[in-house]
Each structure stands twice: as C-alpha cells, then as structure tokens.
Amino acid sequence: MSKVTNITFAGVGGQGILLASDMTANVLISAGYDVKQSEIHGMSQRGGSVVSDLRFGRKVHSPLITEGETDILVAFERLEGLRCIPLLCQGGTAVVNDEIILPVGCSSTDYPVDALERIGAAAGETVIVDATETAARAGNIRAANMVLMGVLSCLLQVEEDFWLCAIRDKFKGKVAEINEKAFSLGRERRAAAVAR
C-alpha cells in the first residue's frame, strides 16, 4: 500500500475502541508502515462517543482524517457508525457491529431504527457483524473488539501472523486464547461475507 490509508474506529466508551486502534497501529508498525493516530475521548468513561483515527502508509505526515477521507470505518455500535458516515470516502468500507447502546438521555424511540440501512446506502461496502454474540461464542463478550479486528485484518494487506503476534503480546493465558479465537471468528465472518 503506497498511498496513505485512513481508518476510523468509532464507538462508545468501554467497548475497547482505543485498544483495537492501538493494537492495529502496532500491527502496521511491525509490518513496516509509518503510522499516525489521534483520538477523541468525549465522555468515554460515561458511555460517551470515542473516535480514534489511524493513518498508515510509506510516509504519513498528519494523524488527522478530514471529512470524506476515511477508507475503512470500524463502528463498534450502530449509531456511532451513522455519526461517522460523513468521514467515509466515496466507495469506502464500513464494518459495523450490530449492537445498539442507547446514549444517555436517549429513549429507544429516539434511536434511528434505520441506522444500518443509512450506513449501507452511504458506504461502498458494508460488513455487518454481530460482534458481541460472536465474542460470546469465543468465551467472553468483551472480546467483541477482537472480532471486529478480525474482520478489519481481512481488508488490509498485512499477514495474519502480525495480528496474532499482537494479540499474544497484549494478552496472556486464557485471555489470549479467547481473544485469538474471537479474532479468528471475525476473519471467518469476513470470508463468509465475501463468499456470498
């Protein structure tokens, strides 16, 4: 990848967005890319929006992604994905966790029921993943971020071993096994979507 590729991670505080972004950055650095990141935490400890931008390529000069420049949007929650759609470039890919987390002060009647459809209409490709249920099959719902990283890994030209090494470096023992399994299930989910 000679051009700079832009990835936006978006979700709600507590979903492991920053961990996924940091681990992806480490994978890309290990693979020989120049990487820059920026983060917006909002009220992340209270369930607020969290966005992390990651840019990589041969040489990256700025960590900031402007509107219409995100190549891949990884949304950990439907509404947060919808909020970030203006960042997506024409023909960009949206990976969306099919989960609803109601923002503070929002009732279920205020939540846009057509969020997935609106994301799909704006993206060149949309991959919808039930990452939470998939993570539960791996052994822990907290590994939903690793499911999404598994899907993301299929969209980048980086060997799987780099990703597995990053997981093993970050986690140990049973936790590493669960996260590795969640990651593998995410890769299988992406492969199944392509095969359709």
Would you give an account of this structure?
The chain is α/β, with parallel strands linked by helices. Helices cover 41% and strands 23% of the residues. Strands 2-3-1-4-5-6 form a 6-stranded mixed β-sheet, with helices on both faces. Helix 5 (144-153) packs across helix 7.
Keywords:
196 residues; alpha/beta; Pyruvate-ferredoxin Oxidoreductase, domain 3; six-stranded mixed sheet; 6 strands; globular
E-strand count: 6
Distance between the terminal alpha carbons, to the nearest Å?
26 Å
CATH architecture call of the domain at 5-131 and 152-158: 3-Layer(aba) Sandwich
Instruction: Tell me the strand order in the biggest sheet.
Output: 2-3-1-4-5-6
Cα gyration radius (Å): 16 Å
Write out the CATH superfamily name of the domain at 5-131 and 152-158: Pyruvate-ferredoxin oxidoreductase, PFOR, domain III
Shape annotation: globular
Helical content band: 40-55%
CATH class of the domain at 5-131 and 152-158: Alpha Beta
In CATH terms, what is the fold-level topology of the domain at 5-131 and 152-158? Pyruvate-ferredoxin Oxidoreductase, domain 3
Strand percentage lies at 15-25%
Output the helix-strand order: EHEEEHEHEHHHH
The SS-based structural class is: alpha/beta
Average predicted confidence as pLDDT:
91
Could you describe the largest sheet, including whether it forms a barrel?
A: 6 strands, mixed
Uncertain stretches: none
Number of helices: 7
Please provide a brief summary of the model.
The protein has 196 residues and is of the alpha/beta class. It has seven helices and six strands; from the N terminus they run βαβββαβαβαααα. The chain is globular, with a radius of gyration of 16 Å.
